[in-house]
Amino acid sequence: MEGGSASTLSNDDNLVVSSEDSSSPTENGLELRLTLSLGRKGFRDCRASQANDDSSSSSSSPSSLSSRASVTAGIKRTADSMAPTSGQVVGWPPIRTYRMNSMVNQAKTLAMEDPQQVNRNTNDATKMGSSMFVKVTMDGIPIGRKIDLNAHKCYESLSNALEDMFLKPNTVPSTQETDGRLETRLKILPDGSSGLVLTYEDKEGDWMLVGDVPWRMFIGSVKRLRIMKTSEATGAAKMNL
Amino acid sequence: MNYFPDEVIEHVFDFVTSHKDRNSISLVCKSWFKIERYSRQNVFIGNCYSISPERLLRRFPCFKSLTLKGKPHFADFNLVPHGWGGFVQPWIEALARSRVGLEELRLKRMVVTDEGLELLSRSFVNFKSLVLVSCEGFSTDGLASIASNCRHLRDLDLQENEIDDHRGQWLSCFPETYTSLVTLNFACLEGETNLVALERLVARSPNLRSLKLNRAVPLDALARLMACAPQIVDLGVGSYEDEQDSESCLKLQAAIRKYTSLRSLSGFLEAAPHCLSAFHPVCHNLTSLNLSYAAEIHGSHLIKLIEHCKKLQRLWILDSIGDKGLEVVASTCKELQELRVFPTDLHGGGNTAVTEDGLVAISAGCPKLHSILYFCQQMTNAALITVARNCPNFIRFRLCILEPHKPDHVTSQPLDEGFGAIVQACKNLKRLSVSGLLTDQVFLYIGMFATQLEMLSIAFAGDTDKGMLYVLNGCKKMRKLEIRDSPFGDAALLADVNKYETMRSLWMSSCEVTLGGCKRLARKAPWLNVEIINENDNNRMEENGYEGRQKVDKLYLYRTVVGTRVDAPPFVWIL
């Protein structure tokens, strides 16, 4: 099988070397380009319909698109699988995370100065290279982590991801406190059962409980997250009152 | 040469500093191998898993400087999950146990811990230089150890790392008697900075040449710092917000006028653009300018600044400069060698972005240009062909068209011909990144013409295995090949297994390679580590029975002399 493709390769080499006009496509090449343009057109049509429909629940995913568009693993799996656009693909455009975070933070700073910009910038943050990393710290663990909020569309998904990050055995450095908590879910609303509560610092510097406001509003105002022990959270709440 | 005593030969070797040359020297004969071994001062290891610290020490017992790189390049873009590897701890421990007099440690994309930094700071009396690029896993506590214990520290250079900022007092950990600082770069620290400690440190560092501040250093502090360090060559301004503080602005202007040695300027993380004019008096000496984090500097303020920078060799900028701005660069910066244009608006539709016209203007105006990284929304074959004609001296050419699969926006053709012209004209091309709509044809050109190419980055390109085969067969000097979201599969992967012995590494993600193909490769090439990175439950790959044909999410393979690594996390499967 491998041998077959190698000999085809050498044929192509000879073709290219011997042809007078290197820009004239061989018949195969022409076919290829025709197929490509058909494929491309389909891709563009799909994208055009995508651009008109802002809601994320559009599921016009043409599975008949050329194989390139169906490259699966590179595309973030959302509940509604959409054709790839530059705003949806993991790790694209190829910009260092550090720089990406810096851009998102700058957008937020501008948003703080102009309240009317908040919605626009929230959209920007959502679309900006599909990354919106915020710091997450958990009491008792010295080194913080970062989580991409744009990878989630709801609180439950966020909660699950944080649980994976902090409570799974092979990712957490061994501390006594975590041993008994492997099965607990990280409750967003404090009901006391897990002993942990998720809080966030908003753009005004206040620490709030995660889950009170709609997700979009949360995304627009969250600066960082902290997983606290319930007892401490209650204490802090009492102090705020 | 055999008639000379070893000391003389060693002295001659001292003039040979490049790693490649020293490697060549060591192959000439046994005696040269031995002399070179004991005299090698700087060791460069491009993949920390290709060799072990013990073997390194056996070969080079006397080195002073070590450069280590850990994660693959695509880790920069979140394609490598957290915990994959690249831990520097075993290296520091092994070096600490040995008698190596380590003076310099340079790490890129590695996981560093506070414990490691503390061990480092205590183990090497003459330690002078710590350079960390894109690293993670440590906090300012680790920096405090370095500051406290490294009596002879000259360089502390932290570039774009993820550092947990405990807002501690690491800057005040430098002893009062410590005066040997030459480089201090903490621009990537997020938290507040002890300004008093910083000023005192700078004031007692007469050798300070490079100072890069984080955003927590406001304008008035900057003015004071600059006033006591006029010998600085490389300055990274932190926050440059002018809160209507005219006294600070005046102090700053006075300080800047003394900055006759300044050659490199960066930062401006939060900037009030109208203050930029304070720097105009020193612009004519600048050789390097990095405004790629200065989102608030654009338009006429930016242009005015650049118009003063006639000696610029290196420029990193945001695409808010626009094509018109690039034309100004082209007509002003005749010494320009390296240009990087980063995007500000990632979801398209920005009308201030740069286009192919900007790139053509630069290529026409800057005859010394040899390195470019250019993010843009659109490109044409005609433009690339013109660029190739104007600039046949490219060593690094990285073009990133933001939308995957985007064709020539005028002709709707793939960009094969454009990139083909680049590789054909640029005979010294060592690094290439391609983007836009590309067929197998572009890889045919690359394989044919890019004879010096060492690193190639491919994304959303090609049609069949032939594309990858053209590259593997043609580019004899290929060292690093990284591919994502392209339809290359087992046939290409397995065609020439020995090729991988001549390369440092191969990365393929979201391609068409299967588990069966990877297993076959691993069997044929036991001297390779073939890693399958599967963030989803790894075990499912075995269970469903179609494992041979199951597509592999991420494949990373690299040559190694020390076999399978022992620190791989559960989601990494080494075949």
From TrEMBL, chain B:
UniProtKB keywords: Auxin signaling pathway, Developmental protein, Nucleus, Ubl conjugation pathway
Chain ranges of the F-box domain: 4-45
Known pathway: Protein modification; protein ubiquitination
One GO BP: auxin-activated signaling pathway
InterPro entries to which the protein is assigned, alphabetical: COI1_F-box, F-box_dom, Leu-rich_rpt, Leu-rich_rpt_Cys-con_subtyp, LRR_dom_sf, Transp_inhibit
GO molecular function (one): auxin binding
GO cellular component, one term: SCF ubiquitin ligase complex
Pfam short name (any one): Transp_inhibit
Nucleus recorded as keyword: yes
Keyword Nucleus in record: yes
Subcellular location(s) per record: Nucleus
Listed PANTHER family: F-BOX/TPR REPEAT PROTEIN POF3, PROTEIN AUXIN SIGNALING F-BOX 2
Protein name: F-box domain-containing protein
Provenance organism: Brassica carinata
Source taxonomy: Eukaryota, Viridiplantae, Streptophyta, Embryophyta, Tracheophyta
